[in-house]
Amino acid sequence: MMEALIKDIGFIIGTTLMYSTPLIFTSLGGVITERSGVVNIGLEGMMCFGAFAGAAGAYFSQDPWIGFACAAIAGGLLALLHAIACVSFAAEQIVSGIAINFMGTGAALFISRMLFDGATQTLTIPNKMPLPLNFLFGEGKMFASSGFMDLVFNRFATVYIAFLMVFLIWFILYKTKIGMRVRAVGENPEAANTLGISVVKIRYGAVIMSGVFAGLGGAAMSIAVVSRFSNTLISGHGFIALAAMIFGKWKPQGALVACLLFGGAKGVEIFLGAKGVPVPGDILAILPYVLTIVVLVGVVGKTTPPGAIGKIFDKGESA
Amino acid sequence: MKKLFVFGLAVIFCSVFALVGTATAKKFKVAMVTDVGGVNDQSFNQSAWEGLKRAKKELGIKIAYKESRQDADYAPNMETLTDAEFDLIWGIGFLMGDAIKSTAMINPDQNYAIIDFSYGPETPKNVGCAVFQEEQPSFLVGYIAGRMTKTNKVGFVGGIKFPLIERFEYGFMAGVKLANPKCEILRQYAESFTDAAKGKAIANNMYQQGADIVFHASGGVGDGVIEAAKEKGKWAIGVDKDQNFLAPDNVLTSAMKRVDIAIYHMSNTMVKGEFKGGETVVYNLSNNGVGIAPTSSKHVPKSILDEVDGLIGKIKAGEIVVPSTNDAYMSFIK
Predict the structure, then answer these.
(1) Number of Cβ pairs closer than 8 Å across A and B?
(2) Interface test with A, best of B191, B216, B244 (most A CBs within 10 A)
(3) Pick the residue with more confidence: B174 or B11?
(4) Number of domain units in chain B
(5) Nearest-CA neighbor of A203 among A68, A52, A79, A18?
(6) ipTM of the complex
């Protein structure tokens, strides 16, 4: 009885980690760009494009790491367009983000058709992301297979990378000069400018990095959770990651908690569904969303975005 | 001058071709509107398009398709094809039910057909409906699962719970119970057709509970189910088309729905002038509209496949009526 309960908890935690990982990458991307003052609602499109590029790269190179790198590049390229529109040409950031969402999904399907014989999905990749701790689990190893430890800790490399990245981004944002500059640009670009910080350069960098992370988030889906890209693989993940970032008060650690909360709610939902609780499945299915809203309103309270978010920065040279 | 000469030549050629074109017998034109999956979705829409391509080759008809980007595109796409004067316009998938009906009411002289949907007695006179008895192939794969499980536990993952998916569910369960009355069946719906991660989690949980074969009828969610089977070294059973290519060592068999056969067959009746609107054609084992995947022989022993052949004979003969609802299932297993 006790053993079964521990296994159930292991299953919920394991599912939480699987669900959260793509969201963590993507919401970190959101944190970086928004802290520099540029809204990026194009995360969904970047994620989708990254998921495709990751699967295609891993398929053709037979190496998941090359796929992972392709996803980062693909997401970064798409974000570059957003940066050009929003930073150089002072376009409305929401509108550009919407355009990026259409473009990312469209480009993924379009290129997929060219490379995969007209199909809007890639073929199955030959090698998935490795399970770095797999050697610890199994017959005669340190931990039994499909025990609690296996269920929780025997995860794809992407899971560990996601957690490392949260720490890394936190460190960069709060403990380094460049991080301080990013935050300064997001709070008060005029003041930062007078101190000789290049607002344009910082914002370009931050927006491109957001695309890189969203691309990695997509790849965490297409080369770890499953092993190919399909046209329905990324359906709403980017927007959930966006919400998680806001919910996490524009902080990497906050975004992490928000993503884990959402993933955890999914894990509980699936667990309850499997137990055959007398609640209709569609009611269970809205649990993660309801929980997110409840926590957002009840626990997190008022969130304050960076001061200069969404505002167009004009150096004022023309004035 | 030279340009003028080339232009003149082109005009002459064009008119000659045009004359030849009108001189031959009337060419039938059939088009289809895909749902949001697009024409190369490796599933439903692609199967439909393959049916039309076969009709083009064998019946010499002209074919075309129009893809829908979102649900709101269905009606405008129908209108566009209606204006282009096709003899028959297909809507692929039950989601197009409303769009086809309303377009058909406005254009009573145009023939339409729809896959996976029937309006019953309400069917407009210019609409043909093609539906499948999904419970039959599900029954067959269920039988295979029941015979091949080593743990006496199998699973079913559904997309969203509505009657069409329930036909898969109860057909499968009946097959399992016929082969192996003691076998336990775990069931769960993902409430989604896209959430692959959820499919993976559900299937992982089923394998953890001791199931060794999981059947899915859940579209994109099934990607996750098959992935879980691959990672855990267990069996999955595919749906709609032969899904063995997704995981050649782990997809045991697939419950196939031959949309291509339905499309070809109905287009053929139109060419022969026998197309009857206002009716629903049911595709099942008897007209090869459903079946199990040809790759089944890779993993399923011949003796079991022979038994499946026996079942197919009995279903065709009406000796076995495969249940498609909970009530029918309950009386089936009694």
Answers:
(1) 97
(2) B191
(3) B174
(4) 2
(5) A79
(6) 0.90
